[in-house]
Amino acid sequence: MRKFLAGSMLLGWVGLASACLPSAAPPTVHVPPPTPTTVTLYVSNTPTVAAQSTRTAPTLTASHLPQPGEPCEPAQSTSAQSAIRYTVDATLDYETRQVQVRDAIAFRNETGDTLDELVFYFAPNAQPGVVTLEAVTQPDSDAPLAASLEGTRLSVQLPEPLGEHCAQDLTIAYLLNVLPMGEGYFPLQGYLGFSERQFNLGHWLPTVAHRVAGEWITPPRINVGEQEVIPAADFEVALTARHAPRHLTVVGPGTVEQRRSVWRFSLSQARDLTLSLSNQYRRQSATAANGVEVELYTLDEFSPSSESAANAPDQALDTAVAALELYSDLYGPYPYDRLVVLESDFPDGMEFSGLVFVGGEWFRGYHGDPASYLTLITAHEVSHQWWYVQVANDQSQTPWLDEALATYSEYVFLQEIYPELTDWWWRFRVDAYAPEGFVDSTVYEFNSIRGYINAVYLQGARLVHRLREDVGGEAFFQWLHDYVEAERGQIATPESFWAALPPDLLEATQATREAFLRRSEIAPNRPD
Ligand SMILES: [Zn+2]
Q1: Structural domain includes residue 504
Q2: Whole-prediction pTM value?
């Protein structure tokens, strides 16, 4: 445990409310996307994709499948085995920027319901013209399953009702037409997009939707915040790059294997498996105290002769290593052997499982002073390995659960590594924007990113700091640690966040909850 846990506390929070003029660029205007494209597939007697698909049909759980007409035999479920596994075979044509994807899903029904359909969250289809759905098939069958794709929602009719603990395998084949960064309805979501020198595949796979109270959750995409709510799963991805430039590097999380033009990645208990390709990546790495290998990939040339940005890669790597060590101590162990940090050609930053992007503008704007967005955003994105990857949440409905904690984690990082910068952080990062609004707002309540950041991130950081003062520093970090322990691999809710706090301490947070939250009352029947 770090020394400051015992109670070093920022004094005089109330003095921080004075506002300065915002120092950053004015908020971007966001055009809401039109009604998303709809594609409906139905059973055809002459499937073409289905015939191809039998070559590499998954066999993972085929033996557990119920036979037609027989009662379903529950899969040989073990707690160590993920209920969802994706085995992805993808071929990228680097010239056309199209990816042919076959996503083989092995699903075990742990939803508590008997299922007639399986629903997937398919983020790329929020943008028309990106996804061409070809077929959804079962192993050992040529007949495609009935499926409909509407916006982010892909619904697949199951051949027969799927009982609890029973398994179903199916394969989704589609063509992904990746757009240039900055184009389309989601110009800022360059984690699925390409620039001259970077090709990113983030949130590119259909993933089994979260199911709550008998409803599948497939949030519509908008240009404010994120909308993911993804059950944890195991991923295996093989990517073949055709017509690729010389010296292409495919960067991804987890275990990596390369044979000629085929890269294989494997990652367990993840929310996504995200790849980034470039023939210009410069790699440097360091080993954290807990043995995790932290790798940094940069695109720009940071010449030693230009003092300004020369140390940006070092600063990003040092920050990522220190943040990983600190958050592992405070919040619980980091779950993977590697952490990848990438300089991105799209703005700001973005979190994925075992891999984070940090905007190139933060690298290029680094002038040797650690009081910079390069430090803050790197620490912020690393903290999402706890607040999103390990403990997920509905990022559309309760974005504060990950973003308030990730923003406050920047402050926690500074307290430990750069304690002289903590006052600067409140002024520069929070107070300068005079933030307001309910912290527990949904992403759909905002028409600008600035308003969203102010309420959810910045007021969120104030909320979390006040909670820390309410319960005391030691109990605060114990709370976060217990919360991760209880919700690891799950999709947390505000109820589960508060339930990780002992009742007497919960009581102590009431005034803070009332000051910052629309829903400040906590249900009394909290579980033990
Ligand atoms: Zn964030």
Answers
A1: yes
A2: 0.86
